[in-house]
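Weekly puzzle thread! Below is a chain. First person to post its structure in C-alpha cell form gets bragging rights.
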Amino acid sequence: MTRQYARILLTTALVTMLFAGGATAIVNAGGKTSDPCPGGLLPDLQAVVPHHLGVQNTSGREYLRLDNGIANVGAGPWHLHPETVVAGEGGTTTAIQDIWSTRDGASDPASRIVCSFATTQFAFHPAHNHWHIGSVARFGVQTATDDGTGGGIGAVYVNDLGVAQSFKTTFCLIDWIKIQDNSKTPERTYWACDRTAPYQGVSVGWIDQYHMSLEGQEIDFTGAPIGVYYLTVNVNDDGKFIESDRSNNLSWVSFRLTRDSMGNAKITLVSHSACSSANMCGEALPNR
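Winning reply:
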C-alpha cells in the first residue's frame, strides 16, 4: 500500500465518521457555496468538442457515433476514490471527490487532502469491463434554431420511437493525453479503472477521451428529418462535482443532415463551439 493510498483511506474513514456524527466534512457537491474548500486547489472541467462523428446503420436503426472527452483546465486535480472497495463485478459505492493542496495531488508526496465531498457513485460497467463514475456528463442531439454557426441550440431531438436523445453518461476517468500535446506520456497519475485501483481522475492539463466505437457512444436518430442539428456535450451538468467554474462545461458541434435517394443519412459538419487548442477542438486527438 502506498503512502498516498493509505492517506486516502484514512481521510475516507475520518469524513465518514464526521458525517455520521452530523458534521459537514462531507457535503453535497451539488450545493452552492462561494468557497467550497479554503486552501484547496479546485479542478475546472471542460468538454472537448465532440469529434469523429459517423453514421452507423444497424438492424434498420441509424446511430450517430461520436468521440468525446473531458479536460481539466483548473488549478488542482479532479480526483475521486471509492468510499468502500466493492468486491467482484457488482454493487455500487459512493464516489468521494478529494480536493488537494497542490497541483499534482496524489503524485506529490508533499500534497495533502484539504476537503472531501460525496458526489455520485462508482458502478461496474459490464460492456467496458471496469468501474465507472456516474453522472459525469450528458450528451445529446438538439435541433438548431439558426444555421448551425451561432450556437442556436434548440429542443432535444425525439426519435421515431418517442425517445428523447439526451443521455447521462458514465466514465472511467484517466489521464489519456495532455491538452497541449499530441502524444501519450508516462507522466500519468490516473491510469487504471479496475476494482483494485485506489482512485480515478484527470490531472491538471490532461484530457480523458472516449472513442466512438465504445458501447454508449451513440445516439439513435433513426428517422430524423433533414436539417441542421447540434450535438452537445455538457460535463458535470448536474453540478455533482466540485470545480472552480461551471460556465465553461458545454461544448458542441453542428452538422447538416441530408438523405440520399434511398433515404440513407449523411452528415456534414457545419461549425463548433470555441476551443483553446487542437486537442480541445478534437482535431488532433488519437483514437482510444
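Puzzle host: Confirmed. Bonus trivia for everyone else. Residues 3-20 form the longest helix (18 residues).
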